[in-house]
Specification:
heterodimer; A: MetI-like fold; 77% helix; globular; B: mainly alpha; MetI-like fold; 14 helices; 73% helix; elongated
């Protein structure tokens, strides 16, 4: 097992290196030059030269690349051209918001998707099955930005139950201030004992989480259904049935357990989609996380910020998949022996 | 003609296969729905100038934000443009984008997968690590970064999507080629002295293309959706191009009061992608019998 983990870590380092090559290529070699973006229209030649030296662009490419890697390894992604702050600290400020959103979205998707998929498989070819499958097919066809706007229209525009956008009411933030400990408002407000602030944060996060969950929910449902159908046709399930074990026990004690590993894989993959759609969802709901940050950065040609977030998301995604792979050992004892 | 041709003519395999496929389509109401919708969308795109009642870019402040009614089926937007006409013209953009992105991704992905699977060894290991790197980016992130670097615009967005998408095809094709490589007819071709490049193109590729085609037909919808997302955040299509994602984006300032400005272009994306996905699912069922029994 240790050997396997070591192997995986080496592989991951290699892939990370490749990711750095791509982000470097994208930001340093492609046409639009960061110098132009820094100086705006019609700079003098001296200004251009000075900027090139300042950015290290006068150096040979390989030297720039090594410096880029060394900086990235120490968490230095450069200074944002928009906020004039180090990209790393910009990102740190916004990390909590994105983490809160994506994690809740994932939990919601798994909590609803898995039982739905199981139900659909157990009641194969009934109305419940057809309904669930229709939801699963429709869910992946809904563009997240449209889902978000529909929810805004319904819950804010028509019903007036939930706020339109943002993370918390600014008035509530003034009246019931709380300390940022974890960066997750739902936890921080509870730690501070600010009930009103907690409710406000909860109301604000509801729609973005729902929007984010819809797509993954569809994927999780579909896969867990397929897995369950496959497991239910296994010999040991038939044996269990022959022994006259209660259906519930067969489904939940034996069959569901066997679907755990594929489900873990799905969660790992879906996490990537979630990080990607979080960019769109944060934009729709004006959510102050990394996704909103990267969109703002693109619009103002803020390269270091774009590459910083891209790099961070790629690393997170790789780490999540590593963790998923390691969880296999926890779920499947046979792997531990090998 | 020779007797061989005559024999081939009598052989029932081909018509049988088509008939079987049709039988499967008919037995799957979802696929009928998908086919009907997609036909409508394609027709709309092709015949846009004749079907659309208005010029999609014509601004008319006198008629702005008109709710859906007889002369404007889907209403008008904040510049008084007819949304029905814009939705029809938008089909052109989205279908083109879907075809171009999947086509370009196949064009990049297929040679890489073919070489990796057929040559094997270190070449394979290297090429697969390269695809690993591209797949390490969460969905949409790499297209966003590349489009940001190339500069916003529909062409760049399409290029960026294709660059981020080709590794899937490389990997799928490689897997299929790995199996085909062990087949007897490949050995036979080699024994006859056929050159490797010819074996790859003539024998290995056609016999391992099915899963790639299946995946490509499933991805078509996702590509349309991704391109619309890029347009939505302002780095894809730009005016005067008529594109559904962009239409939804420009409706953001008005949709809470004037729901139709967002609803119809959004629904257009949803229905089209849904139809394409359902159809892709069906194509997989027909081409890949393994899935048929599972459903």
């Amino acid at each position: 097992m240790i050997k396997y983990v070591a192997h995986r870590l080496v592989m991951m380092t290699g892939i990370l290196f490749g990711v750095l090559v791509i982000t470097f290529a994208v930001s340093h070699v492609l046409p639009s030059s960061p110098v132009e973006m820094m100086l705006g229209a019609k700079p003098t030649q001296e200004q251009i030269d000075a900027a090139r030296v300042e950015l290290g662009l006068d150096r040979p490419l390989y030297e720039q690349f090594f410096r880029y890697i060394a900086n990235a390894a120490t968490g230095d992604f450069g200074v944002s051209l928009r906020t004039n702050q180090p990209v790393a600290s910009d990102m740190l400020e916004r990390l909590g918001a994105t983490f809160e959103l994506v994690t809740l979205g994932m939990i919601l998707a798994v909590l609803i998707g898995t039982p739905l998929g199981v139900l659909s498989a157990v009641r194969q070819d009934t109305a419940a099955d057809h309904g669930t499958r229709t939801i699963a097919i429709a869910g992946v066809a809904l563009p997240p930005f449209f889902t978000g706007m529909l929810l805004q229209l319904l819950f804010y525009g028509t019903l007036g139950w939930l706020p339109l956008q943002g993370r918390i009411d600014s008035e509530i933030l003034l009246d019931y201030s709380f300390e940022t400990v974890t960066g997750l408002y739902l936890i921080d407000t509870l730690l501070a004992g600010q009930w009103q602030a907690f409710v406000s944060a909860l109301l604000h996060i509801a729609l973005p989480v729902l929007t984010l969950a819809v797509f993954s929910l569809a994927v999780v449902t579909r896969i867990s259904r397929n897995m369950m159908v496959e497991v239910l046709s296994e010999d040991y399930i038939r044996t269990a049935r022959a022994y006259g074990l209660p259906r519930r026990a067969i489904h939940y004690r034996y069959a569901l357990r066997a679907t755990l590993i594929p489900l873990l894989t799905v969660i790992g993959l879906t996490y990537g989609y979630m990080l990607g759609s979080s960019v769109i969802v944060e934009f729709v709901f004006d959510w102050p996380g990394l996704g909103g940050y990267i969109v703002g950065a693109i619009i103002s040609n803020d390269f270091p910020a774009v590459m910083g977030v891209t790099l961070f998301f790629a690393t997170t995604y790789l780490l999540v998949n590593l963790i998923v792979d390691l969880l296999y050992f926890a779920v499947d004892p046979r792997l531990r022996m090998a | 003609m020779s007797s061989i041709d005559a024999l081939a003519g009598e052989h029932p395999a081909r018509p049988g296969r088509v008939a079987f496929a049709l039988h499967l389509v008919r037995g799957n109401p979802l696929m009928v729905f998908g086919l009907a919708v997609l036909t409508a969308v394609v027709l709309g795109a092709l015949l846009a100038p004749w079907i659309a009642p208005y010029d999609p870019t014509e601004i008319n402040f006198g008629d702005k934000l008109v709710p859906p009614r007889a002369d404007h089926l889907f209403g008008t937007d904040s510049l008084g443009r007819d949304i029905f006409s814009r939705v029809i013209y938008g089909a052109r953009t989205s279908l083109t984008v879907g075809l171009a992105v999947v086509g370009l991704a196949l064009l990049i992905g297929i040679p890489i997968g073919l070489v990796a699977g057929y040559v094997g060894g270190r070449v394979d290991a290297f090429l697969m690590r390269v695809t690993d790197v591209f797949l390490a980016f969460p969905a949409l992130l790499l297209p966003i970064a590349i489009t940001a670097a190339l500069g916003p615009g529909l062409m760049n967005a399409m290029l960026a999507l294709a660059i981020s998408w080709f590794p899937w095809y490389s990997r799928i094709l490689r897997g299929a080629v790995l199996q085909v490589r062990e087949e007897l007819y490949i050995d036979a071709a080699r024994a006859m002295g056929v050159r490797h490049i010819w074996i790859m193109i003539r024998h290995a590729l056609p016999n391992s293309l099915t899963p790639v085609i299946v995946q490509a037909s499933m991805d078509f919808g996702y590509t349309i959706l991704a391109a619309a997302s890029l347009s939505f955040i302002g780095i894809g299509a730009r005016p005067p191009t008529v594109e559904w994602g962009l239409m939804v984006a420009t409706s953001r300032s008005s949709f809470l009061e004037f729901w139709w400005t967002a609803a119809f272009p959004g629904l257009a994306i949803f229905v089209t992608v849904l139809a394409v996905n359902v159809l892709g699912d069906g194509i997989r069922d027909i081409l890949d019998p393994k899935y048929r029994s599972r459903r």
